[in-house]
Amino acid sequence: MIDSPSLVVRNIGALVTGEMRDGDALGVVDDAVLVASGSLLTYAGSSARARFSPMSADVVDIDARGATVIPGFVDAHTHLTWLGDRGGEYAARAEGVTYEEIARRGGGIRSTVRATAAGSVEQIARAAAARARRMQEHGTTTVEVKSGYGLELSAELRQLDAAIAIGDDEELPDVIATYLPLHAPAEGDREALLTEVCERGVREASTRARFCDVFCEEGAYTVDECRRVLVAARAAGLEPKLHAEQRTRSGGAQLAAALRATSADHLEHATDDDLRGLAVARVTGVILPGAALVLGGPPPPGGRILDAGATVAVATDCNPGTCYSESMPLMISLAVAGCGLTPAQALLAATSGGAAALGLRDRGVLRAGLRCDAVILHSRSWLDVAYHLGANPAATVIRAGLVVAGGDPVVEDGEAAPSRPSG
Ligand code: NIG
Ligand code: FE
Fold first, then answer.
1. CATH number of 74-357
2. Domain boundaries in the chain?
3. Which ligand has the minimum distance to the alpha carbon of residue 321?
4. SS3 for 98?
5. Ligand 2 center to residue 410 CA distance, Å?
6. Is residue 22 exposed (0-12), middle (13-18) or buried (19+ Cβ within 10 Å)?
7. Class of domain 7-72+365-406
8. Kind of pairing between the strands at 374-377 and 394-399
């Protein structure tokens, strides 16, 4: 017995399932239908083979008018829950002041800590909700949200509670919360901070978050400090993630491999050996092309992560210092323009790659039995997601089987993408 549908999307010109099919990495099915019952897909495939039980009047029935449908984006690295504004720093950097110099003067992450730590859960959640809504309008259906702007434990926990409030809001993306206790440089007694994180922080965060992340970097935290916290975090039930090799080669990627972390993120200064180590340990490499563009320095190693045999994800890093952007489509474009990924590889990095970077097996591809998180594009061509720079390609966003953004798809004139993309 097939469950009765609650949502049907018909007349899909091309369905990007995201699963390898006949040598096509994107698994494109032409002339397709999506059917969901509740939050899950019951069918994702060709309309000729679609079978579903009779439709009742309350089924949401969407005509995609020949548009392309892709999986919802999984944005696997963001610092969404901040208060304050660092536009002035952005302008100062354009005049030649470096990120590190700003941090030495007490600005940078520390200035966001001052603004955020003073805020209530409600204030932080309100600021983050506006950003989360923009993410969803651009096709993001799942977003990872880090703390890291609290420093002091109760302020870190307020950030996590704000992240949970976003996830609990049915109108906003699904949230995976990450405790990021080692981010802003410690202001007082470093040992006291580490002890508190290891003894109380990870335990209290473990009821709120799925991951623990650390900023392993010169001027932030050392490999030994990061190892100590991540080992304690795992014992408390939080899986490790690392900011690694962002501004210098810090040793974070090797630590990620040694700990079999879920992901290592940034990686601009990682060597090919570092990346092979991630592949062997099955650590997903997350590239953050927006932050790399804003800060300058070497390009994120998207193509090199794949060459090393590891899974690659692309994410926004949405934060007030290095990348104020909610747009996964823009990150996909930047991953193609500057990080060595093909458009197909970049699209997969933003969907199934993002799910891998969060250890999620129930999303990132469109397959019966998984979550119905999908985006109907304005276009007949999935290539436009990468090719049309800075535009919003999302016409209709569906999360857990419900339409959460956009309206009826209006398909622009244009050709369908070649049905067998390379890569
Ligand atoms: O991912 N690298 C450290 N953290 C952020 C930046 C945070 C900030 O500048 O506020 C990043 O780039
Ligand atoms: Fe980050």
1. 3.20.20.140
2. 7-72+365-406, 74-357
3. 1
4. coil
5. 35
6. exposed
7. mainly beta
8. antiparallel
| Token representation of residue 384 | 């436009």
Pocket test for ligand 1, best of 81, 317, 318, 324 (most atoms within 8 A of CB): 317
Q: What is the pLDDT of residues 65-111, one digit of tens each?
A: 999 999 999 999 999 999 999 999 999 999 999 999 999 998 999 99
Shortest-distance atom of ligand 1 to CA 291: 12
pLDDT digits (tens, 9 = 90+) for 17-76: 999 999 999 999 999 999 999 999 999 999 999 877 767 888 999 999 999 999 999 999
**Range list of β-strands (E), 53-104:** 60-63, 68-71, 73-75
The pocket around ligand 1, CB under 6 angstroms, is made up of 79, 108-109, 112, 215, 243, 246, 291, 317, 319-322
Extract long-range pairs of 51-57: CB within 8 Å, 24+ residues apart.
51/2, 52/2, 52/4, 52/5, 52/8, 53/1, 53/2, 53/3, 53/4, 53/5, 54/4, 55/4, 55/5, 55/8, 56/4
Q: Which of 319, 324, 325 to mutate to test the pocket of ligand 1 (most atoms within 8 A of CB)?
A: 319
For residue 217, the ligand 1 atom closest to its alpha carbon is 2
